[in-house]
Amino acid sequence: MAAQSNEPKSRYLQYLEMVTGPLEDKRRYRQYKARIKQLPQNYRTAAEALERYLMLLGPADGAGAMAMYEDLVDLFEQSAADGTPIRDIFGEDPVEFVEAFVANYPAGQWRSRERNRFTSAIERAAGEDTTRQDRTE
């Protein structure tokens, strides 16, 4: 990553980033997309499908999402270099894989908390004794 300049940003850049978001995130996204395009076809197809899923159901914030996408492309690049079959990356349930992967990132942890909170509330409403803890603290 390039070192950021200590010079203050121009008013134009400040306004542009206020409207469009940080330019650094956009640069990182373009680099990520370029890396995806370099993958062998079957890995690229799987990575693009995973990206589409995450765009709809994954974390939405720019910086957190970019860290996750960069880790994913690292995984696919290494898997392609090692010749790891696609099914060995995802296992039998691709959704289970992606949900476990997303849970490792701060933006994805809210889903696990809310899933646990929801399940506990339903169990309490049904009069079931639950040992689950709501993580509402």
Count of domain modules:
1
- Helix/strand/pairing category: mainly alpha
Indicate the CATH class: Mainly Alpha
Distinct helical segment count: 7
The CATH topology annotation reads as c-terminal domain of poly(a) binding protein
The percent range for helix content is over 70%
What is the end-to-end distance? Answer: 37 Å
By DSSP, the count of extended strands is: 0
How does CATH name the architecture?
Answer: Orthogonal Bundle
| CATH superfamily (homologous) name | c-terminal domain of poly(a) binding protein
Low-confidence stretches: none
The Rg value, from CA coordinates, equals 19 Å
Mean pLDDT: 79
Protein name: DUF1048 domain-containing protein
Pfam families: DUF1048 (PF06304)
Descriptive account of the structure:
The structure is a single chain. The longest helix is centred in the middle third of the chain and has 21 residues, at 62-82. The protein has helices at residues 11-20, 23-37, 41-57, 62-82, 86-90, 94-102, 106-125. It contains 7 helices and no strands. By secondary structure, the chain is mainly alpha-helical. Helices cover 71% and strands 0% of the residues. The two termini are 37 Å apart. The chain has a single domain (26-125), classed as c-terminal domain of poly(a) binding protein. Helix 2 runs parallel beside helix 4 and helix 3 (41-57) packs antiparallel against helix 4.
